[in-house]
Protein backbone atom coordinates (compact mmCIF):
# COMPACT_ATOMS: atom_id res chain seq x y z
CA UNK A 1 0.00 0.00 0.00
CA UNK A 2 2.81 2.41 0.89
CA UNK A 3 4.55 1.79 -2.44
CA UNK A 4 1.30 2.35 -4.32
CA UNK A 5 0.80 5.63 -2.46
CA UNK A 6 4.28 6.78 -3.43
CA UNK A 7 3.61 5.88 -7.07
CA UNK A 8 0.33 7.83 -7.05
CA UNK A 9 1.99 10.85 -5.42
CA UNK A 10 4.76 10.71 -8.00
CA UNK A 11 2.24 10.63 -10.83
CA UNK A 12 0.34 13.59 -9.36
CA UNK A 13 3.56 15.56 -9.02
CA UNK A 14 4.47 14.79 -12.62
CA UNK A 15 1.01 15.84 -13.80
CA UNK A 16 1.25 19.05 -11.77
CA UNK A 17 4.67 19.86 -13.21
CA UNK A 18 3.39 19.19 -16.70
CA UNK A 19 0.38 21.41 -16.09
CA UNK A 20 2.64 24.27 -15.02
CA UNK A 21 4.68 24.03 -18.20
CA UNK A 22 3.73 26.79 -20.57
CA UNK A 23 4.76 26.84 -24.22
CA UNK A 24 4.79 30.41 -25.49
CA UNK A 25 4.74 31.63 -29.04
CA UNK A 26 5.92 35.15 -29.73
CA UNK A 27 2.33 36.34 -30.23
CA UNK A 28 1.21 34.81 -26.93
CA UNK A 29 4.10 36.35 -25.06
CA UNK A 30 3.43 39.81 -26.52
CA UNK A 31 -0.20 39.42 -25.43
CA UNK A 32 0.96 38.70 -21.87
CA UNK A 33 3.30 41.69 -21.89
CA UNK A 34 0.66 44.10 -23.18
CA UNK A 35 -1.79 42.90 -20.53
CA UNK A 36 0.64 43.36 -17.61
CA UNK A 37 2.94 46.22 -18.61
CA UNK A 38 2.80 49.08 -16.10
CA UNK A 39 3.85 51.75 -18.62
CA UNK A 40 0.88 50.86 -20.79
CA UNK A 41 -1.43 50.94 -17.77
CA UNK A 42 -0.16 54.43 -16.92
CA UNK A 43 -0.67 55.55 -20.52
CA UNK A 44 -4.21 54.18 -20.39
CA UNK A 45 -4.86 56.20 -17.23
CA UNK A 46 -3.71 59.31 -19.08
CA UNK A 47 -6.25 58.52 -21.78
CA UNK A 48 -8.97 58.20 -19.15
CA UNK A 49 -7.88 61.51 -17.63
CA UNK A 50 -8.08 63.15 -21.06
CA UNK A 51 -11.66 61.93 -21.39
CA UNK A 52 -12.53 63.41 -17.99
CA UNK A 53 -10.94 66.75 -18.91
CA UNK A 54 -12.93 66.81 -22.14
CA UNK A 55 -16.16 66.36 -20.17
CA UNK A 56 -15.05 69.02 -17.73
CA UNK A 57 -14.33 71.52 -20.51
CA UNK A 58 -17.64 70.79 -22.22
CA UNK A 59 -19.47 71.31 -18.94
CA UNK A 60 -18.23 74.90 -18.78
CA UNK A 61 -20.27 75.70 -21.90
CA UNK A 62 -23.49 74.21 -20.51
CA UNK A 63 -25.93 76.01 -18.19
CA UNK A 64 -25.71 75.54 -14.45
CA UNK A 65 -28.73 75.28 -12.18
CA UNK A 66 -28.50 75.83 -8.45
CA UNK A 67 -30.97 75.86 -5.61
CA UNK A 68 -30.60 77.46 -2.19
CA UNK A 69 -32.95 77.25 0.76
CA UNK A 70 -32.70 79.07 4.08
CA UNK A 71 -34.49 79.48 7.38
CA UNK A 72 -33.86 82.16 10.03
CA UNK A 73 -35.19 82.28 13.58
CA UNK A 74 -35.17 85.83 14.87
CA UNK A 75 -34.32 85.74 18.55
CA UNK A 76 -34.78 89.46 19.09
CA UNK A 77 -37.16 92.02 17.71
CA UNK A 78 -36.18 94.54 15.08
CA UNK A 79 -38.03 97.84 15.00
CA UNK A 80 -38.56 100.62 12.56
CA UNK A 81 -38.85 104.13 14.03
CA UNK A 82 -40.89 106.86 12.42
CA UNK A 83 -41.92 110.42 13.24
CA UNK A 84 -45.52 110.58 14.47
CA UNK A 85 -45.99 113.94 12.79
CA UNK A 86 -45.69 112.20 9.47
CA UNK A 87 -49.00 110.50 10.23
CA UNK A 88 -50.64 113.27 12.24
CA UNK A 89 -49.39 116.86 12.01
CA UNK A 90 -50.54 117.52 15.53
CA UNK A 91 -48.73 114.50 16.99
CA UNK A 92 -45.26 114.72 18.41
CA UNK A 93 -42.52 112.24 19.24
CA UNK A 94 -41.51 108.94 17.65
CA UNK A 95 -43.17 105.58 17.44
CA UNK A 96 -41.74 102.16 16.73
CA UNK A 97 -43.11 99.09 15.09
CA UNK A 98 -41.63 95.60 14.70
CA UNK A 99 -40.66 94.79 11.12
CA UNK A 100 -39.54 91.18 11.50
CA UNK A 101 -41.37 88.02 12.29
CA UNK A 102 -40.07 85.16 14.41
CA UNK A 103 -39.62 82.80 11.44
CA UNK A 104 -38.29 83.58 7.96
CA UNK A 105 -38.25 81.12 5.08
CA UNK A 106 -36.48 81.50 1.72
CA UNK A 107 -35.90 79.49 -1.45
CA UNK A 108 -33.89 80.57 -4.51
CA UNK A 109 -33.49 78.70 -7.83
CA UNK A 110 -31.13 80.16 -10.43
CA UNK A 111 -30.03 79.19 -13.93
CA UNK A 112 -26.80 80.65 -15.26
CA UNK A 113 -25.54 80.40 -18.83
CA UNK A 114 -22.28 81.66 -20.24
CA UNK A 115 -23.27 83.63 -23.33
CA UNK A 116 -19.78 84.63 -24.42
CA UNK A 117 -16.39 83.63 -23.05
CA UNK A 118 -13.22 82.94 -25.02
CA UNK A 119 -11.98 80.67 -22.26
CA UNK A 120 -14.83 78.20 -22.73
CA UNK A 121 -14.12 77.66 -26.42
CA UNK A 122 -10.39 77.37 -25.83
CA UNK A 123 -10.90 74.85 -23.04
CA UNK A 124 -13.09 72.60 -25.20
CA UNK A 125 -10.67 72.79 -28.11
CA UNK A 126 -7.67 72.08 -25.86
CA UNK A 127 -9.44 69.09 -24.28
CA UNK A 128 -10.07 67.54 -27.69
CA UNK A 129 -6.47 68.08 -28.72
CA UNK A 130 -5.22 66.59 -25.46
CA UNK A 131 -7.34 63.50 -26.11
CA UNK A 132 -5.63 63.01 -29.48
CA UNK A 133 -2.26 63.62 -27.83
CA UNK A 134 -2.77 60.94 -25.17
CA UNK A 135 -4.00 58.48 -27.82
CA UNK A 136 -0.79 58.90 -29.81
CA UNK A 137 1.33 58.62 -26.67
CA UNK A 138 -0.43 55.36 -25.80
CA UNK A 139 0.22 54.00 -29.30
CA UNK A 140 3.89 54.99 -29.09
CA UNK A 141 4.23 53.37 -25.67
CA UNK A 142 2.57 50.20 -26.92
CA UNK A 143 4.93 49.98 -29.90
CA UNK A 144 7.96 50.47 -27.64
CA UNK A 145 6.74 47.77 -25.24
CA UNK A 146 6.02 45.30 -28.05
CA UNK A 147 9.43 45.96 -29.63
CA UNK A 148 11.15 45.40 -26.28
CA UNK A 149 9.22 42.16 -25.78
CA UNK A 150 10.32 40.90 -29.21
CA UNK A 151 13.96 41.63 -28.41
CA UNK A 152 13.80 39.89 -25.04
CA UNK A 153 12.00 36.86 -26.50
CA UNK A 154 14.63 36.39 -29.21
CA UNK A 155 17.45 37.08 -26.77
CA UNK A 156 16.21 34.12 -24.74
CA UNK A 157 16.11 32.04 -27.93
CA UNK A 158 19.74 33.01 -28.59
CA UNK A 159 20.78 32.08 -25.06
CA UNK A 160 18.97 28.76 -25.48
CA UNK A 161 21.13 28.13 -28.55
CA UNK A 162 24.27 29.13 -26.65
CA UNK A 163 23.33 26.77 -23.85
CA UNK A 164 22.55 23.97 -26.29
CA UNK A 165 25.89 24.44 -28.06
CA UNK A 166 27.77 24.46 -24.76
CA UNK A 167 25.93 21.42 -23.52
CA UNK A 168 26.54 19.61 -26.84
CA UNK A 169 30.24 20.45 -26.66
CA UNK A 170 30.38 19.14 -23.11
CA UNK A 171 28.57 15.92 -24.00
CA UNK A 172 30.77 15.41 -27.04
CA UNK A 173 33.89 15.90 -24.96
CA UNK A 174 32.54 13.48 -22.32
CA UNK A 175 31.77 10.83 -24.95
CA UNK A 176 35.25 11.27 -26.40
CA UNK A 177 36.78 10.93 -22.95
CA UNK A 178 34.82 7.72 -22.33
CA UNK A 179 36.11 6.29 -25.62
CA UNK A 180 39.66 7.29 -24.76
CA UNK A 181 39.25 5.65 -21.36
CA UNK A 182 38.30 2.36 -23.04
CA UNK A 183 41.20 2.67 -25.46
CA UNK A 184 43.58 3.46 -22.61
CA UNK A 185 42.37 0.42 -20.69
CA UNK A 186 43.04 -1.68 -23.80
CA UNK A 187 46.47 -0.11 -24.24
CA UNK A 188 45.56 1.64 -27.49
CA UNK A 189 46.35 5.22 -26.37
CA UNK A 190 48.81 6.77 -24.00
CA UNK A 191 48.16 8.32 -20.62
CA UNK A 192 48.92 11.73 -22.12
CA UNK A 193 46.20 11.37 -24.74
CA UNK A 194 43.75 10.28 -22.03
CA UNK A 195 44.61 13.34 -19.93
CA UNK A 196 44.14 15.57 -22.96
CA UNK A 197 40.65 14.15 -23.50
CA UNK A 198 39.78 14.57 -19.82
CA UNK A 199 41.06 18.15 -19.79
CA UNK A 200 39.01 18.99 -22.85
CA UNK A 201 35.89 17.54 -21.22
CA UNK A 202 36.29 19.23 -17.85
CA UNK A 203 37.08 22.63 -19.44
CA UNK A 204 33.66 22.61 -21.11
CA UNK A 205 31.75 22.18 -17.83
CA UNK A 206 32.16 25.80 -16.58
CA UNK A 207 31.12 27.16 -19.96
CA UNK A 208 27.94 25.10 -19.85
CA UNK A 209 27.20 26.28 -16.32
CA UNK A 210 27.76 29.91 -17.36
CA UNK A 211 25.45 29.52 -20.37
CA UNK A 212 22.79 27.92 -18.16
CA UNK A 213 23.02 30.78 -15.65
CA UNK A 214 22.67 33.43 -18.36
CA UNK A 215 19.66 31.62 -19.80
CA UNK A 216 17.93 31.41 -16.41
CA UNK A 217 18.51 35.10 -15.73
CA UNK A 218 17.07 36.06 -19.11
CA UNK A 219 14.08 33.75 -18.64
CA UNK A 220 13.38 35.29 -15.23
CA UNK A 221 13.34 38.73 -16.86
CA UNK A 222 11.07 37.42 -19.59
CA UNK A 223 8.60 36.03 -17.03
CA UNK A 224 8.63 39.23 -15.01
CA UNK A 225 8.00 41.39 -18.07
CA UNK A 226 5.14 39.13 -19.19
CA UNK A 227 3.53 38.90 -15.76
CA UNK A 228 4.19 35.16 -15.54
CA UNK A 229 4.75 33.17 -12.38
CA UNK A 230 8.46 32.94 -11.55
CA UNK A 231 8.04 29.23 -10.71
CA UNK A 232 6.26 28.48 -13.97
CA UNK A 233 8.19 26.35 -16.46
CA UNK A 234 8.18 28.24 -19.76
CA UNK A 235 9.33 26.91 -23.10
CA UNK A 236 9.67 29.17 -26.12
CA UNK A 237 8.31 27.81 -29.39
CA UNK A 238 9.93 30.49 -31.52
CA UNK A 239 12.91 30.08 -33.79
CA UNK A 240 15.97 32.05 -34.84
CA UNK A 241 15.87 30.61 -38.33
CA UNK A 242 12.87 32.68 -39.48
CA UNK A 243 14.61 35.86 -40.59
CA UNK A 244 12.48 38.57 -42.23
CA UNK A 245 13.61 39.96 -45.55
CA UNK A 246 15.75 43.04 -45.70
CA UNK A 247 13.32 46.01 -45.72
CA UNK A 248 13.30 48.56 -48.48
CA UNK A 249 14.41 52.15 -47.99
CA UNK A 250 11.60 54.27 -46.57
CA UNK A 251 11.08 57.96 -47.26
CA UNK A 252 11.40 60.24 -44.24
CA UNK A 253 7.96 61.79 -44.73
CA UNK A 254 6.38 58.31 -44.72
CA UNK A 255 8.25 57.48 -41.53
CA UNK A 256 7.13 60.67 -39.80
CA UNK A 257 3.53 60.07 -40.90
CA UNK A 258 3.57 56.57 -39.37
CA UNK A 259 5.30 57.27 -36.06
CA UNK A 260 2.77 57.86 -33.24
CA UNK A 261 5.31 59.67 -31.06
CA UNK A 262 5.97 62.21 -33.81
CA UNK A 263 2.22 62.62 -34.32
CA UNK A 264 1.91 63.26 -30.60
CA UNK A 265 4.40 66.11 -30.92
CA UNK A 266 2.25 67.71 -33.62
CA UNK A 267 -0.80 67.47 -31.38
CA UNK A 268 1.27 69.06 -28.64
CA UNK A 269 2.06 71.90 -31.05
CA UNK A 270 -1.66 72.39 -31.75
CA UNK A 271 -2.33 72.37 -28.02
CA UNK A 272 0.34 75.05 -27.50
CA UNK A 273 -1.24 77.17 -30.23
CA UNK A 274 -4.58 76.88 -28.46
CA UNK A 275 -2.91 77.98 -25.22
CA UNK A 276 -1.65 81.11 -26.96
CA UNK A 277 -5.19 81.88 -28.11
CA UNK A 278 -6.53 81.24 -24.62
CA UNK A 279 -3.97 83.61 -23.11
CA UNK A 280 -4.97 86.33 -25.58
CA UNK A 281 -8.62 85.64 -24.77
CA UNK A 282 -8.03 87.02 -21.28
CA UNK A 283 -8.23 90.51 -22.85
CA UNK A 284 -11.81 89.91 -24.02
CA UNK A 285 -14.97 90.42 -21.95
CA UNK A 286 -17.26 87.68 -20.72
CA UNK A 287 -21.05 87.79 -20.82
CA UNK A 288 -23.22 85.70 -18.49
CA UNK A 289 -27.00 85.39 -18.43
CA UNK A 290 -29.08 84.59 -15.34
CA UNK A 291 -32.67 83.44 -14.84
CA UNK A 292 -33.80 83.11 -11.22
CA UNK A 293 -36.90 82.47 -9.13
CA UNK A 294 -37.04 83.57 -5.49
CA UNK A 295 -39.57 82.71 -2.81
CA UNK A 296 -39.78 84.12 0.70
CA UNK A 297 -42.21 83.83 3.60
CA UNK A 298 -42.30 85.01 7.20
CA UNK A 299 -44.51 84.33 10.17
CA UNK A 300 -44.50 84.25 13.95
CA UNK A 301 -45.74 80.69 13.62
CA UNK A 302 -44.32 77.84 11.55
CA UNK A 303 -46.57 78.76 8.68
CA UNK A 304 -45.91 80.11 5.20
CA UNK A 305 -47.44 83.56 5.60
CA UNK A 306 -46.47 86.89 4.12
CA UNK A 307 -45.30 85.17 0.91
CA UNK A 308 -43.34 86.76 -1.93
CA UNK A 309 -42.57 85.16 -5.27
CA UNK A 310 -40.20 86.79 -7.70
CA UNK A 311 -38.80 86.03 -11.15
CA UNK A 312 -35.48 87.62 -12.15
CA UNK A 313 -33.65 87.76 -15.48
CA UNK A 314 -30.42 89.56 -16.20
CA UNK A 315 -27.08 89.64 -17.90
CA UNK A 316 -23.64 90.35 -16.50
CA UNK A 317 -20.77 91.78 -18.53
CA UNK A 318 -17.25 91.54 -17.13
CA UNK A 319 -14.52 93.58 -18.79
CA UNK A 320 -10.92 93.19 -17.59
CA UNK A 321 -9.10 96.52 -17.65
CA UNK A 322 -5.82 96.20 -15.79
CA UNK A 323 -4.25 93.12 -14.16
CA UNK A 324 -0.80 94.40 -13.31
CA UNK A 325 0.88 92.90 -16.38
CA UNK A 326 -0.33 89.35 -15.68
CA UNK A 327 -2.09 88.90 -19.05
CA UNK A 328 0.83 89.91 -21.30
CA UNK A 329 3.12 87.71 -19.24
CA UNK A 330 0.82 84.72 -19.78
CA UNK A 331 0.68 85.41 -23.53
CA UNK A 332 4.47 85.60 -23.70
CA UNK A 333 4.80 82.38 -21.71
CA UNK A 334 2.43 80.55 -24.06
CA UNK A 335 4.39 81.78 -27.09
CA UNK A 336 7.70 80.61 -25.59
CA UNK A 337 6.26 77.15 -24.89
CA UNK A 338 4.97 76.99 -28.47
CA UNK A 339 8.42 77.91 -29.79
CA UNK A 340 10.06 75.20 -27.67
CA UNK A 341 7.62 72.60 -28.98
CA UNK A 342 8.35 73.56 -32.59
CA UNK A 343 12.09 73.34 -31.96
CA UNK A 344 11.61 69.89 -30.41
CA UNK A 345 9.71 68.81 -33.51
CA UNK A 346 12.57 69.89 -35.77
CA UNK A 347 15.05 68.19 -33.46
CA UNK A 348 13.01 64.99 -33.51
CA UNK A 349 12.80 65.09 -37.30
CA UNK A 350 16.59 65.21 -37.61
CA UNK A 351 17.04 62.51 -34.96
CA UNK A 352 14.57 60.15 -36.66
CA UNK A 353 16.23 60.68 -40.04
CA UNK A 354 19.63 59.81 -38.60
CA UNK A 355 18.21 56.89 -36.62
CA UNK A 356 16.57 55.26 -39.65
CA UNK A 357 19.76 55.67 -41.74
CA UNK A 358 21.91 54.06 -39.04
CA UNK A 359 19.49 51.16 -38.63
CA UNK A 360 19.55 50.54 -42.38
CA UNK A 361 23.35 50.28 -42.18
CA UNK A 362 23.07 47.84 -39.27
CA UNK A 363 20.60 45.72 -41.21
CA UNK A 364 22.82 45.51 -44.29
CA UNK A 365 25.90 44.67 -42.19
CA UNK A 366 24.06 42.01 -40.17
CA UNK A 367 22.57 40.52 -43.34
CA UNK A 368 26.03 40.14 -44.85
CA UNK A 369 27.34 38.60 -41.63
CA UNK A 370 24.57 36.01 -41.71
CA UNK A 371 25.61 34.90 -45.19
CA UNK A 372 29.28 34.77 -44.20
CA UNK A 373 28.58 33.02 -40.89
CA UNK A 374 26.39 30.43 -42.59
CA UNK A 375 29.18 29.56 -45.05
CA UNK A 376 31.74 29.40 -42.24
CA UNK A 377 29.43 27.15 -40.22
CA UNK A 378 29.15 24.63 -43.05
CA UNK A 379 32.92 24.48 -43.44
CA UNK A 380 33.48 24.20 -39.68
CA UNK A 381 30.92 21.41 -39.40
CA UNK A 382 32.59 19.41 -42.16
CA UNK A 383 35.99 19.98 -40.57
CA UNK A 384 34.76 18.76 -37.19
CA UNK A 385 33.16 15.66 -38.67
CA UNK A 386 36.43 14.80 -40.41
CA UNK A 387 38.44 15.47 -37.24
CA UNK A 388 36.07 13.35 -35.17
CA UNK A 389 36.29 10.42 -37.59
CA UNK A 390 40.09 10.57 -37.90
CA UNK A 391 40.45 10.88 -34.11
CA UNK A 392 38.39 7.76 -33.58
CA UNK A 393 40.70 5.96 -36.01
CA UNK A 394 43.77 7.30 -34.23
CA UNK A 395 44.82 9.52 -37.15
CA UNK A 396 44.26 12.84 -35.35
CA UNK A 397 45.38 14.06 -31.95
CA UNK A 398 43.09 15.23 -29.17
CA UNK A 399 44.39 18.73 -29.63
CA UNK A 400 43.35 18.68 -33.28
CA UNK A 401 39.92 17.36 -32.32
CA UNK A 402 39.58 20.04 -29.65
CA UNK A 403 40.48 22.77 -32.12
CA UNK A 404 37.99 21.42 -34.66
CA UNK A 405 35.24 21.28 -32.05
CA UNK A 406 35.98 24.77 -30.81
CA UNK A 407 35.92 26.07 -34.38
CA UNK A 408 32.58 24.38 -35.01
CA UNK A 409 31.07 25.67 -31.76
CA UNK A 410 32.33 29.18 -32.38
CA UNK A 411 31.02 29.15 -35.95
CA UNK A 412 27.62 28.01 -34.66
CA UNK A 413 27.50 30.78 -32.06
CA UNK A 414 28.66 33.36 -34.59
CA UNK A 415 25.84 32.35 -36.91
CA UNK A 416 23.16 32.65 -34.25
CA UNK A 417 24.68 35.90 -32.98
CA UNK A 418 24.56 37.33 -36.51
CA UNK A 419 20.91 36.28 -36.82
CA UNK A 420 20.07 37.86 -33.50
CA UNK A 421 21.89 41.09 -34.41
CA UNK A 422 19.87 41.24 -37.61
CA UNK A 423 16.61 40.65 -35.73
CA UNK A 424 17.61 43.24 -33.14
CA UNK A 425 18.20 45.79 -35.89
CA UNK A 426 14.99 44.76 -37.65
CA UNK A 427 12.93 45.34 -34.49
CA UNK A 428 14.60 48.74 -34.11
CA UNK A 429 13.71 49.46 -37.74
CA UNK A 430 10.07 48.55 -37.07
CA UNK A 431 9.99 50.90 -34.10
CA UNK A 432 11.83 53.69 -35.93
CA UNK A 433 9.44 53.55 -38.89
CA UNK A 434 6.26 53.09 -36.84
CA UNK A 435 5.59 49.61 -38.23
CA UNK A 436 5.69 47.50 -35.07
CA UNK A 437 3.45 44.45 -35.30
CA UNK A 438 2.58 41.75 -32.79
CA UNK A 439 4.13 38.91 -34.83
Please identify the top-level CATH class: Mainly Alpha
Gyration radius, to the nearest Å?
41 Å
**Content-based structural category:** alpha+beta
User: How many β-strand stretches?
Assistant: 8
> Could you say which overall geometry the principal axes of the C-alpha atoms support?
elongated
Count of discrete domains: 1
Order of helices and strands: HEHHEEEEHHEHHEEHH
Using the coordinates shown, work out and report the CATH topology: Outer membrane efflux proteins (OEP)
Helix content: 55-70%
CATH superfamily: Outer membrane efflux proteins (OEP)
Largest sheet: 4 strands, antiparallel
Q: Give the strand line-up of the largest sheet.
A: 2-5-7-8
Report the portion of residues in β strands.
15-25%
Topology at a glance:
Blueprint: H1 2-20, E1 21-24, H2 26-36, H3 38-59, E2 64-73, E3 79-83, E4 94-98, E5 103-116, H4 118-185, H5 191-226, E6 233-236, H6 252-258, H7 260-280, E7 286-299, E8 308-318, H8 326-392, H9 398-432
Helix pairs in contact: 2-4, 3-4, 4-5, 4-7, 4-9, 7-8, 8-9
What can you see in these coordinates?
The protein has one domain: Outer membrane efflux proteins (OEP). It is 65% helix and 15% strand. It has helices at 2-20, 26-36, 38-59, 118-185, 191-226, 252-258, 260-280, 326-392, 398-432; strands at residues 21-24, 64-73, 79-83, 94-98, 103-116, 233-236, 286-299, 308-318. It has a 4-stranded antiparallel β-sheet with strand order 2-5-7-8, with no helix packed on it. Strands 1-6 form a two-stranded parallel sheet. It has a two-stranded antiparallel ribbon with strand order 3-4. α3 runs antiparallel to α4. The radius of gyration is 41 Å and the shape is elongated.
Amino acid sequence: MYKKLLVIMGMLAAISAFAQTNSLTLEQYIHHVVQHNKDLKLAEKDRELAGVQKKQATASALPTIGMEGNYNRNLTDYFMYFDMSALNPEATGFAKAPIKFDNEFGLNVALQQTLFSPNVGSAIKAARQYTHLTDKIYNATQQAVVSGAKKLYHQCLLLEKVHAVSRGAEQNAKDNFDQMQLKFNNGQVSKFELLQAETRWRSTVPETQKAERNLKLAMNTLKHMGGLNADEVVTLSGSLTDVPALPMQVELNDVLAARPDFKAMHWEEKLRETNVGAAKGAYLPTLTGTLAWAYSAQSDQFEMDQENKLWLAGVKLSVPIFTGGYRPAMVQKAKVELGKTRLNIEKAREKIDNEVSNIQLRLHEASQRIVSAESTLKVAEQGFQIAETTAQNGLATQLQLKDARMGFDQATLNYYAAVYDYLDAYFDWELATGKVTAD
